[in-house]
Amino acid sequence: MAVGFAGLGRMGREMARNLAEAGHDLVLWNRSRDRAEALAAETGAAVAATPRDLAERCVVVVTMLADDPASEDVHYGEDGLFAGRAMRTCLEMGTMSPGHIADLAARAPEGVTVIDAPVSGATAAARDAQLLVMAGCDAATGAPLRPLLDALGRRTVFLGRTGAGAAMKLGVNMLIHGLNQTLAEALALTRAAGIPRAAAFDVIEASAAAAPMLSYRRPLYLDDASAPVTFTVDLARKDMAVTLALADRLGVALPQGRVTLALLEEAISMGYGPRDMAAIVPFMEDKTT
Fold first, then answer.
1. Residues 6+ apart with CB under 8 A from 232
2. How does pLDDT run across 48-99, given as a tens digit for each residue?
């Protein structure tokens, strides 16, 4: 079975490499063609000229794109995925709004199934095939995709219906960004009290407040410039904006989420946008009076 992969950013590149290593017949497309050609040279995959070309050559296409507008550009139009004729399953693994997933499902060509299957885990988890997949379908629908999903992650949770994966991913990311903000505040407070950041982090990491992301992101939290960026402040702001838009549509109050979004926007206005989200630690320390 030919598998297409569109979107070779930090996460997508690692995911596509794992699919190739698992033996899938892989075809790549990326907006910047040089990225696709570089990975193809490394893995033996083919390169598609356009998203339509990808969907002409592959039965299943995986996308790992930044946001709804990027996904719209890739799917719609005469050179989009939906113009291809071979594709039968479109697996959306980026963080998208449930509304966008519903639009994709409604506009998909006859015979094409759209499944939202966003993932949780940073680039190291993507590299090690340890992602958690949240699939917006039932287990029976997802069964033919298990070899592909198992090559990408440690576990797939089937959430039963289209859009449920996208909504669940927003809930998970809201928790992550809230924890990131609270951690930054705790480190700013303890530093002001005279405790070095590394010592404070040691205590937090060993406490009841510890979460897996603290350990694997430790180098970034101690110095965000000391390690490669894994998730930018700009992307965190995007996540929170999409989450709050969903909350508004559903009538759900998210007071802490609104505070987190406001602080992310303030950080971006001060130039932190391209930095890793761990840069909220120095951002909060700089706010200390």
1. 273, 274, 275, 276, 277
2. 999 999 999 999 999 999 999 999 999 999 999 999 999 999 999 999 999 9
Q: What's the rounded Cα separation, in Å, for the pair 15 and 126? A: 6
Mean pLDDT taken over the chain: 96
The CATH number, out of the four listed (3.40.50.1820, 1.10.1040.10, 1.10.10.10, 1.20.1050.10), of the domain defined by the range 167-286: 1.10.1040.10
d(CA 114, CA 110): 11
CATH 3.40.50.720 fits 2-160, yes or no: yes
Indicate the helix (H) or strand (E) that contains 113.
strand 113-116
Residue 47 above 80 pLDDT?
Answer: yes
Continuous H helices in 88-232:
98-107, 123-127, 139-142, 146-152, 164-192, 197-205, 212-216, 218-222
What is the percentage of the chain residues whose pLDDT exceeds 90?
A: 97
